[in-house]
Amino acid sequence: MRIKTEELTRKFRVGSSEITAVNRVNLEINEATFIAIVGPSGSGKSTLLNLIGLNDQPTYGRVFIDETDASLISGRRRREIRLLRIGFVFQTFNLLPTLTVLENVELPLSLAGKSQEEQREKAMTLLENVSLGDRIYHRPKELSIGEMQRVAIARALANDPETIIADEPTGELDSKTAKETIDLLFDINRKRKTTVIVATHDEKIVEVADTTYTIIDGKLGLNTN
């Protein structure tokens, strides 16, 4: 999946003020690359990821998915792209607390119309791959933060997406668990040829990224250091 933005802008109204969270961003992301987007809190990182991932609509400007203008895509098609072609790892994990670890990973497979047998087999394999095969019947509240992050990554991989979008995936982790998460994302990128786009403060992610961008006050620039 190739992603391109042209003059991408997102503004929010807060009371009587207008805030420009993303300001005329022009960006091209090629297939199978590892991209890091860094910047201080409130700089626009999460908003940019939501726009790229089709979770939000720009105020103006455009997002292209494989040269198709996303603004011309139907709501149903956007949902299909988010389900089948993009995997999301959210900063707060977004695991469903009433479901087991296994059921959380099975959910996107169910939404994609996979049989119960396919769901179970794929989810079990993914959880084994992230070293959680012995935790499949636990619920999120029974897991460590690092384990919840690995469940979130396994869930993001459920439908074999072409792109993973991760928002501060190591932000709440200790240094050891953060390294394990970085290594996992790096392996996903290199072995699966999955594009990985990460918003982060973590210099260790920057070290393994192919390209790093800095965003400040909604304006994106290429980091050449």
Overview of this protein structure:
This protein is α/β, with parallel strands linked by helices and 225 residues long. It has a domain at 1-85 and 197-225: P-loop containing nucleotide triphosphate hydrolases (Rossmann fold). The chain has seven helices and ten strands. The strands form two sheets. A six-stranded mixed β-sheet has the order 6-7-8-3-9-10, with helices on both faces. It is globular. The two termini are 27 Å apart. The mean pLDDT is 95.
The second-level CATH architecture of one domain is 3-Layer(aba) Sandwich
The CATH topology name of one domain reads Rossmann fold
Mean pLDDT: 95
Rg calculated over all Cα atoms: 17 Å
Helices and strands: which structural class? alpha/beta
Query: Overall 3D geometry?
Result: globular
From the N-terminal CA to the C-terminal CA, the straight-line distance is 27 Å
Sheet with most strands: 6 strands, mixed
Could you give a short description of this structure?
By secondary structure, the chain is an alpha/beta fold.
